[in-house]
Amino acid sequence: MNQARHRGADHGPTHLFRYVVAGPVLPVLIVLGVILVDLLGGAGLTWLPLLAVGPALAATTNGPRGVLYVGLLAGVLGAVLGVRNAVPARELVAVLSALAAVTLASGLASALRGRRERVLAAVRSVAEAAQHALLLPVPEIVGPFQVAVRYSAAAAEARIGGDLYALVPTPYGVRLLVGDVRGKGLPAVGTAALVLGVFREAAHDEPDLLTVVDRIERSLARNLGPDDFVTAVVAGHPRDGELEVVNCGHAPPLLVRAAGTVTPVEPTHPAPPLGLRALAGESPALQVLPFGDGDQLLLYTDGVTEARDHGREFYPLVDGLGRHVTDEPARTLDALQDELLAHVGGKLHDDAALLLIRKPATEAPVVPQPACGGLVLGDRSG
To answer: Which of 195, 233, 250, 331 is least enclosed by beta carbons within 10 angstroms?
Structure first.
């Protein structure tokens, strides 16, 4: 049924508009329009040079064959109209020669455009493969948590940026990471790959969350330049009812209590970003938060909170989360992402990552009740 609906939609006004713009229809209409104006105006040669607009426009939306077809149509009609209007032979030949030159140049431009589009498609395909390799898909349930992730790269052509996230179950509980690499492009992607690789290994090996962070710090200190760094929040769930959080120069996570209140988790002991500890001489501290049934924790990157609207106002994430929080993390993040894109007018200027976990309420065990009498099983009072 859905496929049939989509097929029906393809024949609607939107499909017709796309066909007119992207196909050869619009260039042909322009050629016919020039011919019509020439016929009505009777000015002969004055309007014939405008026939070159047809193949030039076709080069922006059509392949070389479509350009040649439009150019041939314009040439034939121009020749017929020139003879009809008794245009001098030398002038008519000059116009048709110019039209042929524009057609050939437009065909070459169309071929080069098509080649660039194929290269770009290949680059996007490789970028998507790299993103899937680095930012592994996160299931909806990990350990005791409901989980949702949303990632938007500002560079739409690449579909990958310097933001990173990971969530892994380990012998020491579920551990998660959200970070932001300084810089853009391939160097940022390489640093993100390094951080994620070290985190996934250390999270399984180290019982202490601070030791996990130390291993990432040591690896970055060996491999990054003096001006490079990574802001990050690393969290863990070592036991029921608790969350451990280590903040390394990153935006504070947002803690959502079961009652719906939203509170930023400000670090009690601010620490520098990963890769800068040797320069700052400060070490991160471990925060322990109570985290019960119905509580949620949102980790995000500054591409969310620093997104501006046309009035240069930042996106109010705390207020937005308070408006849209639900018992389903995926639905909450869908609403947040839609509102964020609406706030910026549809295009982000920085990468944005959102990772939300929720501890669902567990049902209390049912205690069998006696068929009659006033005693509950296990009550030994007389």
So the answer is: 331
pLDDT over 70 (residue 101): yes
**Helix, strand, or coil here: 314?**
strand
Taking the C-alpha atoms of residue 267 and residue 2, their distance in angstroms, rounded to an integer, is 49
Distance in Å from the first CA to the final CA of the chain: 67
What secondary structure, in 3-state letters, does 244-300 show?
EEEEECCCCCEEECCCCCEEECCCCCCCCCECCHHHHCCCCCCEEEECCCCCEEEEE
Does pTM top 0.70 for this prediction?
no
pLDDT computed for residue 300 by the predictor:
96
Phi and psi torsions of 170, nearest 5°? -135, 170
- Alpha-carbon distance of 246 to 334, in angstroms, equals 27
Whole-Å CA distances, 139 to 39, 134, 136, 300? 67, 15, 10, 18
Other CB atoms within a 10 A radius of the CB of residue 316 amount to 13
In one-letter notation, the amino acid at residue 380 is R
pLDDT-derived band at 19, boundaries 50, 70, 90: very low
Tell me how crowded residue 327 is: count the other CB atoms within 10 A of its CB: 13
Place of tokens 């291993």: 215
Query: What's the rounded Cα separation, in Å, for the pair 189 and 292?
Result: 35
Which is nearest to 233 in space by CA: 201, 265, 206? 265
DSSP-assigned states of every residue in 351-368: -EEEEEEE-PPPPPPPPP
Over the stretch 295-341, which tens digit does the pLDDT of each residue have? 999 999 999 999 998 989 999 999 999 999 999 999 999 999 999 99
- Nearest Cα to 245, choosing from 256, 233, 263, 255? 233
The chain-wide mean pLDDT, for the chain, equals 82
Residue 262, φ and ψ in degrees, nearest 5: -115, 125
List, in sequence order, every residue forming a beta bridge with 230; answer none if it has no partner. Answer: 181, 274
Contacts of 206-209 with C-beta under 8 Å, sequence gap 24+, read 206/172, 207/171, 207/172, 209/175, 209/234, 209/235, 209/236, 209/238, 209/244, 209/246, 209/286
**pLDDT of 72 strictly over 80:** yes
Tokens 């065990």: give the residue.
365
pLDDT band at 369 (very low <50, low <70, confident <90, very high): very low
> Tokens in use for 140?
């909806």
Q: Report d(CA 140, CA 329) in Å as an integer.
A: 9
